Protein backbone atom coordinates (compact mmCIF):
# COMPACT_ATOMS: atom_id res chain seq x y z
CA UNK A 1 0.00 0.00 0.00
CA UNK A 2 1.17 3.55 -0.69
CA UNK A 3 1.73 5.95 2.20
CA UNK A 4 -1.66 7.50 3.11
CA UNK A 5 -2.22 11.24 2.76
CA UNK A 6 -2.61 13.34 5.89
CA UNK A 7 -6.40 13.61 5.51
CA UNK A 8 -6.68 9.82 5.30
CA UNK A 9 -4.80 9.53 8.59
CA UNK A 10 -7.13 11.80 10.57
CA UNK A 11 -10.00 9.42 11.39
CA UNK A 12 -7.78 6.45 12.39
CA UNK A 13 -5.64 8.76 14.52
CA UNK A 14 -8.71 10.18 16.24
CA UNK A 15 -10.02 6.64 16.92
CA UNK A 16 -6.63 5.69 18.36
CA UNK A 17 -6.79 8.61 20.76
CA UNK A 18 -10.31 7.63 21.81
CA UNK A 19 -9.00 4.18 22.70
CA UNK A 20 -5.70 5.15 24.33
CA UNK A 21 -6.48 8.44 26.08
CA UNK A 22 -3.29 10.47 25.68
CA UNK A 23 -0.50 9.92 23.16
CA UNK A 24 2.65 11.64 22.02
CA UNK A 25 3.33 12.11 18.33
CA UNK A 26 5.80 9.23 18.19
CA UNK A 27 3.21 6.89 19.75
CA UNK A 28 0.98 7.16 16.69
CA UNK A 29 3.49 5.89 14.16
CA UNK A 30 3.53 2.13 14.76
CA UNK A 31 -0.20 1.51 15.39
CA UNK A 32 -1.18 3.67 12.41
CA UNK A 33 1.39 1.90 10.23
CA UNK A 34 -0.21 -1.40 11.21
CA UNK A 35 -3.66 0.02 10.50
CA UNK A 36 -2.64 0.99 6.96
CA UNK A 37 -0.53 -2.14 6.42
CA UNK A 38 2.66 -0.23 5.71
CA UNK A 39 5.98 -1.97 5.26
CA UNK A 40 9.03 -0.91 7.26
CA UNK A 41 10.46 0.62 4.07
CA UNK A 42 7.34 2.77 3.67
CA UNK A 43 7.49 3.83 7.33
CA UNK A 44 11.12 4.88 6.93
CA UNK A 45 10.73 6.53 3.50
CA UNK A 46 11.92 10.15 3.51
CA UNK A 47 11.19 13.19 1.37
CA UNK A 48 13.57 13.74 -1.52
CA UNK A 49 14.58 16.96 0.20
CA UNK A 50 15.82 14.94 3.18
CA UNK A 51 13.48 16.79 5.54
CA UNK A 52 12.28 13.82 7.55
CA UNK A 53 10.09 10.75 7.14
CA UNK A 54 6.99 11.17 4.99
CA UNK A 55 4.56 9.06 7.06
CA UNK A 56 5.63 10.61 10.37
CA UNK A 57 5.30 14.11 8.90
CA UNK A 58 1.81 13.37 7.58
CA UNK A 59 0.73 12.09 11.01
CA UNK A 60 1.95 15.37 12.48
CA UNK A 61 -0.08 17.38 9.99
CA UNK A 62 -3.18 15.23 10.53
CA UNK A 63 -2.98 15.95 14.27
CA UNK A 64 -2.27 19.63 13.64
CA UNK A 65 -5.38 20.08 11.51
CA UNK A 66 -7.58 18.24 14.03
CA UNK A 67 -6.14 20.35 16.83
CA UNK A 68 -6.90 23.57 14.94
CA UNK A 69 -10.47 22.34 14.37
CA UNK A 70 -10.95 21.73 18.11
CA UNK A 71 -11.10 17.94 17.87
CA UNK A 72 -8.03 17.52 20.09
CA UNK A 73 -6.65 18.94 23.31
CA UNK A 74 -3.00 19.21 24.34
CA UNK A 75 -2.94 18.72 28.14
CA UNK A 76 0.83 19.23 28.12
CA UNK A 77 3.65 19.79 25.70
CA UNK A 78 3.71 17.22 22.89
CA UNK A 79 0.79 15.22 24.28
CA UNK A 80 -2.53 14.83 22.43
CA UNK A 81 -5.96 13.90 23.79
CA UNK A 82 -9.36 13.73 22.10
CA UNK A 83 -11.81 16.52 23.00
CA UNK A 84 -15.55 16.23 23.57
CA UNK A 85 -16.07 17.68 20.11
CA UNK A 86 -13.69 15.07 18.74
CA UNK A 87 -15.68 12.22 20.36
CA UNK A 88 -18.87 13.64 18.90
CA UNK A 89 -17.37 13.95 15.43
CA UNK A 90 -15.92 10.44 15.63
CA UNK A 91 -19.48 9.05 15.50
CA UNK A 92 -19.57 10.09 11.83
CA UNK A 93 -15.97 9.64 10.65
CA UNK A 94 -17.00 9.88 7.00
CA UNK A 95 -17.74 13.60 7.52
CA UNK A 96 -14.55 14.34 9.45
CA UNK A 97 -12.63 16.02 6.62
CA UNK A 98 -15.64 18.12 5.65
CA UNK A 99 -16.03 19.24 9.25
CA UNK A 100 -12.36 20.22 9.55
CA UNK A 101 -12.46 22.14 6.27
CA UNK A 102 -15.55 24.03 7.42
CA UNK A 103 -14.03 24.82 10.82
CA UNK A 104 -10.79 26.13 9.38
CA UNK A 105 -12.61 28.15 6.73
CA UNK A 106 -14.79 29.73 9.43
CA UNK A 107 -11.73 30.60 11.52
CA UNK A 108 -10.12 32.27 8.51
CA UNK A 109 -13.33 34.07 7.57
CA UNK A 110 -13.64 32.14 4.29
CA UNK A 111 -16.22 29.89 2.75
CA UNK A 112 -15.31 26.21 2.39
CA UNK A 113 -13.78 25.48 -0.99
CA UNK A 114 -15.81 23.75 -3.67
CA UNK A 115 -13.73 20.59 -3.28
CA UNK A 116 -14.42 20.44 0.46
CA UNK A 117 -18.16 20.76 -0.17
CA UNK A 118 -18.22 17.81 -2.54
CA UNK A 119 -16.07 15.54 -0.42
CA UNK A 120 -12.58 15.16 1.03
CA UNK A 121 -9.68 15.19 -1.39
CA UNK A 122 -7.84 11.94 -0.73
CA UNK A 123 -4.92 13.19 -2.84
CA UNK A 124 -4.47 16.37 -0.77
CA UNK A 125 -0.97 17.33 0.33
CA UNK A 126 0.29 18.87 3.52
CA UNK A 127 1.33 22.53 3.20
CA UNK A 128 4.95 21.41 3.33
CA UNK A 129 4.38 18.85 0.57
CA UNK A 130 2.64 21.48 -1.56
CA UNK A 131 5.76 23.61 -1.17
CA UNK A 132 7.96 20.70 -2.26
CA UNK A 133 5.72 19.97 -5.26
CA UNK A 134 5.74 23.61 -6.33
CA UNK A 135 9.53 23.73 -6.07
CA UNK A 136 9.76 20.50 -8.09
CA UNK A 137 7.59 21.95 -10.88
CA UNK A 138 9.69 25.11 -10.95
CA UNK A 139 12.89 23.03 -11.17
CA UNK A 140 11.50 20.99 -14.07
CA UNK A 141 10.63 24.19 -15.93
CA UNK A 142 14.13 25.54 -15.31
CA UNK A 143 15.69 22.28 -16.55
CA UNK A 144 13.93 22.67 -19.89
CA UNK A 145 14.90 26.35 -20.06
CA UNK A 146 18.54 25.38 -19.50
CA UNK A 147 18.52 22.84 -22.34
CA UNK A 148 16.72 25.25 -24.68
CA UNK A 149 19.29 27.94 -23.90
CA UNK A 150 22.23 25.58 -24.46
CA UNK A 151 20.80 24.57 -27.85
CA UNK A 152 20.81 28.23 -28.85
CA UNK A 153 24.57 28.45 -28.24
CA UNK A 154 27.45 27.17 -30.36
CA UNK A 155 28.94 23.68 -29.96
CA UNK A 156 32.17 25.34 -28.82
CA UNK A 157 30.33 27.23 -26.09
CA UNK A 158 28.76 23.96 -24.97
CA UNK A 159 32.19 22.33 -24.67
CA UNK A 160 33.37 25.18 -22.43
CA UNK A 161 30.18 24.89 -20.38
CA UNK A 162 30.58 21.19 -19.57
CA UNK A 163 34.22 21.68 -18.61
CA UNK A 164 33.17 24.49 -16.24
CA UNK A 165 30.41 22.29 -14.80
CA UNK A 166 32.80 19.43 -13.99
CA UNK A 167 35.10 21.89 -12.26
CA UNK A 168 32.15 23.19 -10.21
CA UNK A 169 31.41 19.59 -9.27
CA UNK A 170 34.87 19.36 -7.73
CA UNK A 171 36.88 17.66 -10.47
CA UNK A 172 40.30 19.24 -10.71
CA UNK A 173 40.11 20.44 -7.12
CA UNK A 174 42.30 23.42 -6.33
CA UNK A 175 44.71 22.78 -9.18
CA UNK A 176 45.54 25.92 -11.17
CA UNK A 177 44.27 25.69 -14.76
CA UNK A 178 43.07 22.15 -14.12
CA UNK A 179 40.71 22.15 -17.12
CA UNK A 180 41.20 22.86 -20.79
CA UNK A 181 38.98 22.82 -23.86
CA UNK A 182 40.86 21.12 -26.68
CA UNK A 183 41.61 22.71 -30.05
CA UNK A 184 38.51 22.98 -32.23
CA UNK A 185 40.28 21.14 -35.05
CA UNK A 186 42.17 17.88 -34.75
CA UNK A 187 40.92 17.26 -31.24
CA UNK A 188 41.11 13.50 -31.74
CA UNK A 189 37.56 13.02 -30.48
CA UNK A 190 38.32 14.72 -27.15
CA UNK A 191 36.56 18.01 -26.39
CA UNK A 192 38.02 18.76 -22.96
CA UNK A 193 40.49 17.51 -20.37
CA UNK A 194 40.57 17.89 -16.59
CA UNK A 195 43.75 17.23 -14.62
CA UNK A 196 43.14 15.41 -11.33
CA UNK A 197 46.56 16.15 -9.87
CA UNK A 198 49.22 18.83 -10.15
CA UNK A 199 51.51 16.82 -12.43
CA UNK A 200 48.66 15.60 -14.58
CA UNK A 201 49.11 11.86 -14.03
CA UNK A 202 45.36 11.49 -13.67
CA UNK A 203 43.18 12.94 -16.39
CA UNK A 204 39.46 12.93 -17.21
CA UNK A 205 38.64 13.27 -20.90
CA UNK A 206 35.37 14.78 -22.04
CA UNK A 207 33.19 14.45 -25.12
CA UNK A 208 30.30 16.91 -25.50
CA UNK A 209 27.50 16.60 -28.06
CA UNK A 210 25.01 19.45 -28.38
CA UNK A 211 22.17 17.52 -30.02
CA UNK A 212 18.50 18.38 -30.45
CA UNK A 213 16.50 16.47 -27.84
CA UNK A 214 14.94 14.21 -30.48
CA UNK A 215 18.37 12.99 -31.67
CA UNK A 216 19.92 10.42 -29.36
CA UNK A 217 23.59 9.49 -29.14
CA UNK A 218 24.16 6.05 -30.63
CA UNK A 219 26.48 3.16 -29.86
CA UNK A 220 28.90 4.05 -32.67
CA UNK A 221 29.61 7.48 -31.17
CA UNK A 222 30.32 5.92 -27.78
CA UNK A 223 32.65 3.40 -29.38
CA UNK A 224 34.50 6.21 -31.18
CA UNK A 225 34.96 8.05 -27.89
CA UNK A 226 36.29 4.92 -26.18
CA UNK A 227 38.76 4.60 -29.07
CA UNK A 228 39.81 8.22 -28.55
CA UNK A 229 40.39 7.47 -24.87
CA UNK A 230 42.65 4.57 -25.81
CA UNK A 231 44.70 6.80 -28.12
CA UNK A 232 45.00 9.38 -25.32
CA UNK A 233 46.06 6.57 -22.98
CA UNK A 234 43.21 7.47 -20.62
CA UNK A 235 40.89 5.19 -18.70
CA UNK A 236 38.43 7.87 -17.53
CA UNK A 237 35.87 9.49 -19.78
CA UNK A 238 32.67 11.52 -19.51
CA UNK A 239 30.29 11.73 -22.45
CA UNK A 240 27.77 14.57 -22.07
CA UNK A 241 24.87 15.37 -24.37
CA UNK A 242 21.84 17.65 -24.37
CA UNK A 243 19.69 14.82 -25.73
CA UNK A 244 19.72 11.15 -24.67
CA UNK A 245 21.59 7.89 -25.25
CA UNK A 246 20.22 5.01 -27.26
CA UNK A 247 19.73 1.66 -25.56
CA UNK A 248 22.67 0.26 -27.50
CA UNK A 249 24.91 3.12 -26.40
CA UNK A 250 24.02 2.66 -22.75
CA UNK A 251 24.52 -1.11 -22.95
CA UNK A 252 27.92 -0.71 -24.58
CA UNK A 253 29.10 1.77 -21.92
CA UNK A 254 27.94 -0.58 -19.18
CA UNK A 255 29.77 -3.54 -20.75
CA UNK A 256 33.22 -1.95 -20.71
CA UNK A 257 35.79 -3.78 -18.63
CA UNK A 258 37.20 -2.37 -15.41
CA UNK A 259 40.14 -0.79 -17.21
CA UNK A 260 37.94 1.98 -18.62
CA UNK A 261 35.42 4.04 -16.66
CA UNK A 262 32.91 5.82 -18.87
CA UNK A 263 30.17 8.05 -17.45
CA UNK A 264 27.19 9.03 -19.60
CA UNK A 265 25.31 12.22 -18.77
CA UNK A 266 22.14 12.90 -20.74
CA UNK A 267 20.23 16.17 -21.09
CA UNK A 268 18.03 15.67 -18.04
CA UNK A 269 20.97 14.86 -15.78
CA UNK A 270 23.00 17.69 -17.29
CA UNK A 271 20.26 20.21 -16.49
CA UNK A 272 19.95 18.87 -12.95
CA UNK A 273 23.69 19.22 -12.38
CA UNK A 274 23.73 22.77 -13.78
CA UNK A 275 20.87 23.70 -11.47
CA UNK A 276 22.34 21.98 -8.41
CA UNK A 277 25.84 23.43 -8.81
CA UNK A 278 24.64 26.92 -9.78
CA UNK A 279 26.05 27.06 -13.29
CA UNK A 280 24.07 29.50 -15.45
CA UNK A 281 21.39 29.99 -12.79
CA UNK A 282 20.96 32.28 -9.80
CA UNK A 283 18.72 32.34 -6.74
CA UNK A 284 15.49 34.15 -7.54
CA UNK A 285 13.76 33.96 -4.16
CA UNK A 286 14.41 32.37 -0.77
CA UNK A 287 11.58 31.08 1.43
CA UNK A 288 12.36 30.46 5.09
CA UNK A 289 10.27 27.85 6.93
CA UNK A 290 10.77 28.05 10.69
CA UNK A 291 9.83 25.71 13.52
CA UNK A 292 9.68 26.23 17.26
CA UNK A 293 12.97 26.10 19.13
CA UNK A 294 12.27 23.37 21.70
CA UNK A 295 15.29 24.19 23.86
CA UNK A 296 14.26 27.86 24.04
CA UNK A 297 10.71 27.10 25.19
CA UNK A 298 11.66 24.22 27.48
CA UNK A 299 13.93 26.58 29.41
CA UNK A 300 10.91 28.70 30.38
CA UNK A 301 8.88 27.92 33.48
CA UNK A 302 5.47 26.39 32.73
CA UNK A 303 2.34 27.66 34.43
CA UNK A 304 0.65 24.88 36.42
CA UNK A 305 -2.26 23.34 34.55
CA UNK A 306 -1.72 25.43 31.42
CA UNK A 307 -1.68 23.85 27.98
CA UNK A 308 1.82 23.76 26.56
CA UNK A 309 3.05 25.05 23.26
CA UNK A 310 3.06 22.64 20.30
CA UNK A 311 5.86 20.13 20.32
Fraction of residues in helix: 40-55%
Number of strands: 8
Structural class: alpha/beta
Strand line-up of the largest beta sheet? 4-5-6-7-8
Mean pLDDT: 86
Integer-rounded radius of gyration: 28 Å
Taking the sheet with the most strands, its summary is: 5 strands, mixed
What's the SSE pattern? HEHHHEEHHHHHEEEHEHEHH
Low-confidence stretches: 114-123
CATH architecture group name of the largest domain: 3-Layer(aba) Sandwich
How much of the residues is beta strand, in percent?
5-15%
Q: Could you give a quick summary of the protein structure above?
A:
The protein has helices at residues 6-20, 25-36, 40-44, 54-68, 84-90, 96-107, 114-118, 127-151, 155-168, 219-231, 247-255, 267-276, 294-298, and strands at 22-24, 72-73, 79-82, 179-181, 192-195, 203-209, 236-241, 261-265. With 311 residues, it is an alpha/beta fold. The strands form two sheets. The protein has a five-stranded mixed beta sheet, with helices on both faces. Strands 1-3-2 form a three-stranded antiparallel beta sheet.
Describe the structure.
This protein has helices at residues 6-20, 25-36, 40-44, 54-68, 84-90, 96-107, 114-118, 127-151, 155-168, 219-231, 247-255, 267-276, 294-298, and strands at residues 22-24, 72-73, 79-82, 179-181, 192-195, 203-209, 236-241, 261-265. With 311 residues, it is α/β, with parallel strands linked by helices. The chain folds into two domains: 6-124, Arc Repressor Mutant, subunit A; 144-276, Trna Endonuclease, Chain: A, domain 1, CATH 3.40.1350. The strands form two sheets. It has a five-stranded mixed sheet with strand order 4-5-6-7-8, sandwiched between helices. Strands 1-3-2 form a three-stranded antiparallel sheet. Helix 11 links the parallel strand 7 and strand 8. Helix 1 (6-20) packs across helix 4 (54-68). It is elongated, with a radius of gyration of 28 Å. The model is unreliable at 114-123 (pLDDT under 50).
Amino acid sequence: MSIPKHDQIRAPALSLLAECGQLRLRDFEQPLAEHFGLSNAEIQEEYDSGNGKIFYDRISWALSYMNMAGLLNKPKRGVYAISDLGRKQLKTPETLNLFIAAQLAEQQGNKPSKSSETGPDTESLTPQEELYESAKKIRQARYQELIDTILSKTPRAFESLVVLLLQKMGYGGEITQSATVTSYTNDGGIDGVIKEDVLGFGRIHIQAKRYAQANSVGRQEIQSFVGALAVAQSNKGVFITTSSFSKGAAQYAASLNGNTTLILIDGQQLAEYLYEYGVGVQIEHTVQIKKLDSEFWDAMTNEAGAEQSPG
